[in-house]
Amino acid sequence: MSRAVVAWTLYDFANSSFAAIVLSTVYPAYYAGAVVGNADGRGDFWWGLVVSVSMILVALTAPLLRGIADHAGTRKPFFVGFTLVSVAATALMATVGPGMVGWGFALGVTGIVTFEAAFVYYNAYLPRIAAPAQLGRVSAAGFAVGYAGSLVAFLLAYPFAAAKAYGGCFLVAAGPLPYDAGGKGGPPCRSSSTSASSVS
After folding, report:
1. What pLDDT score does 115 carry?
2. pTM value?
3. 191 located within any domain
4. DSSP states of 28-90
5. Position 188 in a domain
6. Radius of gyration of the CA atoms of the chain, in A
């Protein structure tokens, strides 16, 4: 397995913490229950609004982002930039307290939109780091490593959740991504000569 493929799968390992903690479990429950208050279902409404607004923005911007990924020479700066914004939004979720509905909403939307935007560029790397015959195997490796990343994130976040120190959960979710996007774990600027052309 080439260095480029290993780097690609490591990013999936790292960003799965966001999907596991922010999208699926801790942040939705915390935002709905503790930040907004959910006795009358208002918290669920607000979290649904966070997701709905995020998905609308993703749907509106994805074609442009895909066009840039396919045709322009600026793939890596966008990939790293969107990832770092998502990381910052995730870390700042630790500052959201009860009653801070607008701030929690803004961070949720920002984190989700930039997470999805970075994924557009992440997926665009696949045909450039793997030969056509290897695409299925490399993609499956990314999924498998991603599930492992989710499990690790849950294990690290559980002590914070059990202590109701939910800010620690969000810092766990934010922690691995800056390194894997911009450092040694991120897709390199040039892939191996046997599996891909250069990546800008």
Report:
1. 94
2. 0.83
3. no
4. HHHIIIIII--TTSHHHHHHHHHHHHHHHHHHHHHHHHHHHHHHSS-HHHHHHHHHHHHHHHH
5. no
6. 17
- The band of 43, judged by pLDDT with boundaries at 50, 70 and 90, is very high
Q: Which residues contact 33 (CB under 8 A, 6 or more apart)?
A: 43
Question: Distance between CA 127 and CA 106 in Å, rounded?
Answer: 34
* 10 falls within a domain: yes
pLDDT of residue 176: 63
* 119 belongs to a structural domain: yes
pLDDT in tens, 137-188: 888 888 898 899 899 999 999 999 999 999 999 999 987 655 454 444 445 4
SS3 category, 165? coil
Range of the domain at 166: 3-182
Structure confidence by residue, pLDDT tens digits, 179-195:
454 444 445 433 333 33
| Count of domains forming the chain | 1
| Domain harbouring 160, CATH code | 1.20.1250.20
- Residue 119 CB burial class (10 angstroms; 0-12, 13-18, ≥19): buried
